[in-house]
């Protein structure tokens, strides 16, 4: 039974449970207040009756002492008994009116005997046979004479019962009003929580598997107090975070699709060339010594180009995955020396582009991978040569600050349009869409360069405007990388 009640209680809504809990607490408070009030009222009325008995006995005692008889005002249903005490034994005097004493006077006689023994006023509450509860008081009128008066307690008990009835009715009505109106107020106050639950159900029914998924739902209903407002803010912040994550995922999926499509396209070109030259060997003219050597040279060139492309893709994949065996072999190296080596290699392979090494520090020792650092420098210098007309001057320089070392590669070519600046580091992206792949490369050079610089804990930035392109490599002097 108790278990069933508990299960039923747990199935109730939060507002109803809070209202019932508030009602139970109020019931306890009402019970404590009612008990205290009833007890106080009973004690107060009893004290009033005691004072009334005392005042009445003072007047009656004077009449007995002066005239020997009980005269004066008598109260309805009160009892008055006068005892002569001789030798410690009280003897009841003949009452003026038989109604002045009850049929059974044993309790009054016992109280008179107690007063004689103690010598002071005595109060007692007795249940007189056939009469009900009475408050009895005994006092000495004069030596040897004791007056015992009794007042019924029916009025007090009736008053107390009426008070209890009024309290019960009032408390029940107040409790019902508290539960009903309290539940309504709690439901209104908790309405924002219901709105959040509705929003959560809406999100649960939303198809998050779509690439363009967004969460337009938000908990916007005001009210509920600071706590609910804090919860609403946290809830909406969570939704914003989920929305941003979905947007990032959708963008990543879109980039992946483009990447796969571009990679397939880039690999398809050399593969078609290899297949075409291989098919030529089926024909006799292609097997002539001079033709065969030419076709084999083309096959080697296409295979080498495809190998470079695959190496770049593999390097990018390893950098993205942050493998334990990262493609970096860190050691102490001189950045200035690496720049000079890259400059010498550039001059040897690109005679049509004059290169200037700007003045700078004589030596900059850093913790880096010399091979990958050279790869970054070669990519940037080659990019300047490939995408500028012959004769375009190129410069490279090294500078240092307290925390970083910078390599600046600049050229005086046509520059990069502003609309392409945010995409030049994307994989397979080309500023000049019409450029042939033989001259324009695969579009992975800058992407590989930025990934390698970031793997060292640095950054690669693009600056400059029309007529100038500047790439700046920034590396931490304390050493970085994964």
Q: Can you walk me through this structure?
A:
With 482 residues, this protein is an alpha+beta fold. It is built from eleven helices and twelve strands. The strands form three sheets. A five-stranded antiparallel beta sheet has the order 2-1-5-4-3, with helices on both faces. A five-stranded mixed beta sheet has the order 7-9-10-12-11. Strands 6-8 form a two-stranded antiparallel ribbon. α8 packs parallel to α9 and α9 packs antiparallel against α11. It starts with a helix and ends in a 6-residue tail after the last strand.
What descriptive keywords fit this protein?
5-stranded antiparallel beta sheet, 482 residues, 11 helices, 5-stranded mixed beta sheet, alpha+beta
Strand order of the largest sheet: 2-1-5-4-3
Average pLDDT reading: 79
- What fraction strand? 15-25%
Measured between the Cα atoms of the first and last residue, the distance is: 64 Å
Helix percent band = 40-55%
Low-confidence stretches: 433-440
Q: How many helices in DSSP terms?
A: 11
| SSE string, helices as H and strands as E | HHEEHEEEHHHHEHEEHEEHHEE
How can the largest sheet be summarized? Answer: 5 strands, antiparallel
Supply the helix-strand structural class: alpha+beta
Morphology? rod-shaped
Radius of gyration: 54 Å
The number of E-state strands comes to: 12
């Amino acid at each position: 039974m108790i278990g069933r009640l508990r299960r039923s209680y747990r199935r109730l809504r939060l507002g109803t449970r809070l209202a019932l809990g508030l009602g139970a607490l109020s019931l306890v408070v009402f019970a404590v207040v009612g008990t205290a009030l009833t007890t106080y009222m009973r004690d107060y009325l009893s004290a009033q009756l005691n004072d009334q008995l005392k005042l009445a006995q003072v007047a009656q005692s004077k009449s007995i002492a002066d005239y020997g008889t009980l005269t004066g005002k008598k109260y309805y249903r009160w009892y008055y008994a006068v005892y002569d005490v001789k030798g410690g034994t009280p003897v009841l005097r003949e009452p003026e009116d038989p109604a002045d004493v009850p049929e059974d006077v044993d309790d009054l006689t016992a109280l008179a005997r107690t007063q004689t023994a103690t010598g002071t006023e005595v109060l007692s509450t007795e249940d007189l046979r056939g009469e009900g509860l009475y408050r009895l008081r005994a006092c000495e009128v004069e030596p040897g004479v004791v007056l015992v008066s009794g007042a019924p307690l029916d009025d007090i008990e009736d008053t107390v019962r009426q008070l209890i009835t009024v309290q019960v009715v009032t408390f029940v009505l107040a409790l019902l009003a508290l539960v009903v109106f309290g539940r309504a107020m709690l439901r209104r106050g908790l309405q924002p929580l219901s709105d959040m639950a509705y929003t959560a159900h809406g999100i649960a029914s939303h198809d998050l598997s779509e690439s363009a998924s967004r969460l337009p739902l938000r908990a916007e209903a005001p009210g509920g107090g600071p706590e609910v407002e804090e919860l609403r803010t946290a809830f909406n912040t969570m939704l914003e975070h989920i929305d941003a994550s979905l947007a990032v995922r959708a963008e990543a999926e879109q980039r992946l699709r483009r990447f796969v499509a571009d990679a397939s396209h880039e690999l398809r070109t050399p593969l078609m060339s290899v297949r075409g030259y291989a098919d030529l060997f089926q024909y006799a003219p292609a097997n002539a010594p001079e033709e065969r050597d030419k076709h084999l040279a083309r096959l080697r060139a296409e295979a080498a180009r495809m190998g470079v492309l695959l190496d770049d893709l593999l390097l990018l994949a390893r950098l993205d995955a942050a493998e334990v065996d990262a493609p970096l072999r860190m050691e102490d190296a001189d950045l200035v020396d690496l720049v000079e080596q890259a400059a010498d290699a550039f001059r040897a392979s690109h005679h049509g582009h004059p290169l200037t090494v700007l003045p700078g520090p004589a030596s900059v020792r850093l913790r880096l991978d010399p091979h990958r650092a050279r790869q970054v420098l070669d990519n940037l210098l080659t990019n300047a040569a490939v995408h500028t007309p012959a004769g375009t001057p190129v410069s490279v320089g090294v500078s240092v600050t307290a925390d970083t070392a910078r390599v600046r590669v600049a050229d005086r070519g046509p520059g990069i349009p502003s609309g392409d600046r945010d995409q030049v580091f994307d994989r397979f992206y080309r500023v000049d869409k019409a450029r042939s792949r033989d001259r324009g490369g695969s579009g992975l050079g800058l992407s590989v360069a930025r990934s390698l610089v970031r793997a060292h804990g640095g950054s690669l930035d693009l600056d400059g405007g029309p007529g100038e392109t500047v790439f700046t490599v920034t590396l931490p002097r304390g050493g970085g990388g994964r």
